[in-house]
From TrEMBL:
Cofactor entry: Zn(2+)
Pfam families in the record: M20_dimer, Peptidase_M20
Organism of derivation: Ruoffia tabacinasalis
Keyword terms: Hydrolase, Metal-binding, Zinc
Hydrolase in keyword set: yes
Protein name: M20 family metallopeptidase
Nucleotide-binding among keywords: no
Recorded superkingdom: Bacteria
Domain (Peptidase M20 dimerisation): residue spans on this chain: 177-270
Classification via PANTHER family: ACETYLORNITHINE DEACETYLASE, BLL0789 PROTEIN
UniProt xrefs under InterPro entries: ArgE/DapE_CS (IPR001261), Bact_exopeptidase_dim_dom (IPR036264), Pept_M20_glutamate_carboxypep (IPR017150), Peptidase_M20 (IPR002933), Peptidase_M20_dimer (IPR011650), Peptidase_M20A (IPR050072)
Length: 384
């Protein structure tokens, strides 16, 4: 069988450019739905059936499977949203320089979406029976915790014998465990006053935020816990005591008991104001459980490791500090592997890049691994 990624390289790069040049930040429903519409058409063109799960405030989720799939037991998981707001594409659209592609979301994870499409196209063209055992869920809120899509992912995972997550990876290997995470938002209300004429009549919400940030960041001194206030906003003008402020808090933890402890400490810190006249309100919660490498993952991991060896690839097992939808399925005890998308780096940054040849390499690995999974019914059953 010919390598579809080499044979269709021009098409692949054209589709990648089309997807990257659509702003699709998690909060920009119109853009995420535009990406979904392109992918819906592409998957239908190769003979897949696409069910749209509508969401009011986020992009609509796509469920994709072969028309003959009755009880698919291999879940493929990916996402269509990025972290970049509307207008980013206009400032830095897709470009190729040598063997690298650049643009918002090119690495995380529009390259993975293209890789997935052509993997399914190759398997369908070959007539391989594994396509009838696959269900694909492409969600639209992964970058903000998969709040709206989690239940759908977990529903399909509960019926699956294996889950393959097509998140990209900056280093070669297979991810089989990840930190858990949570997102919190602290609303701070004070009182405005003229900063020069009557400062004593005001109460600064920004000053209160400064106290809270210092205490929150100290939680990272606890082993296995990382807390970061990544966004801060507030105030009305430079010469006004700030009446309001909002602090966005990111929590990561290596074990679920550490997550429980950290959330309790965050709530304690955010319960009592330092300054008189301040009121506080904390929103948010833990959004992803920690995914600890389970004992029943071995056969799934080895299937892809051995497929990689046949291609001359060494694939070590990796632990990631970042979260993904693999946290949900892995923590459910369903055999899950992650990081199967193409290679690149600088995710969520202006310098984000994708190594184009890795679409070919990781895509062929993905195809070979799926085919190996379906060699015998006993192998799939043994993954439970």
């Amino acid at each position: 069988m010919t390598n579809i990624y080499k044979e269709k390289q021009g098409e692949i790069e054209e589709l990648l450019e089309e997807l990257v040049n659509i702003d699709s930040g998690s909060y920009y429903k119109q853009g995420v739905d535009a990406v979904g519409n392109v992918l819906k058409q592409e998957f239908e063109n190769i003979g897949m059936s696409v069910t749209v799960h509508p969401l009011e405030d986020r992009g609509d989720i796509l469920q994709i499977q072969h028309p003959n799939a009755k009880k698919p037991d291999i879940l493929l998981s990916g996402h269509m949203d990025t972290v970049f707001p509307e207008g980013t594409v206009k400032m830095r659209p897709f470009k190729i320089k040598g063997e690298y592609a650049y643009g918002p979301g090119v690495f995380d994870m529009k390259g993975s979406l293209v890789m997935l499409l052509y993997a399914m196209r190759a398997l369908i063209q070959e007539g391989h029976p594994v396509v009838e055992r696959i269900v694909i869920i492409l969600n639209t809120d992964e970058e903000i915790g998969s709040i709206d899509s989690r239940s759908l992912i977990e529903t399909f995972a509960s019926q699956a014998t294996s889950v393959l997550v097509i998140e990209p990876s900056s280093v070669p290997g297979i991810i089989n465990s990840r930190k858990g995470g949570g997102k919190f938002f602290l609303d701070i209300h004070g009182k405005s006053a003229h900063a020069g004429a009557e400062p004593e009549k005001g109460c600064s919400a920004i000053e209160e935020a400064a106290h809270k940030i210092l205490h929150l960041h100290k939680l990272s001194d606890n082993p296995g816990i990382n807390v970061n206030v990544g966004l801060i906003s507030g105030g009305t003008s430079i010469n006004t005591i700030a009446p309001t402020s909002v602090a966005a808090i990111d929590l990561r933890f290596e074990a679920n008991e550490l997550g429980v402890f950290a959330e309790q400490e965050i709530r304690k810190i955010c319960l009592h104001p330092v300054l008189e006249g301040i009121t506080l309100n904390l929103r948010g919660k833990i959004t992803r459980p920690a995914w600890v490498a389970p004992q029943n993952n071995g056969r799934l991991e080895q299937t892809f490791i051995q497929s990689g060896k046949k291609m001359g690839l060494t694939l070590p097992l990796l632990y990631s500090g970042g979260g993904s939808d693999g946290n949900f399925t892995g923590s459910m005890g369903v055999p899950t592997i992650d990081g199967l998308g193409p290679s690149g780096g600088d995710a969520h940054q202006e310098t984000e890049y994708l190594y184009l040849p890795s679409i070919h390499t990781k895509g062929q690995l993905f195809i070979n691994g799926l085919k190996e999974l379906a060699v015998t019914k006993e192998l799939i059953g043994g993954l439970q």
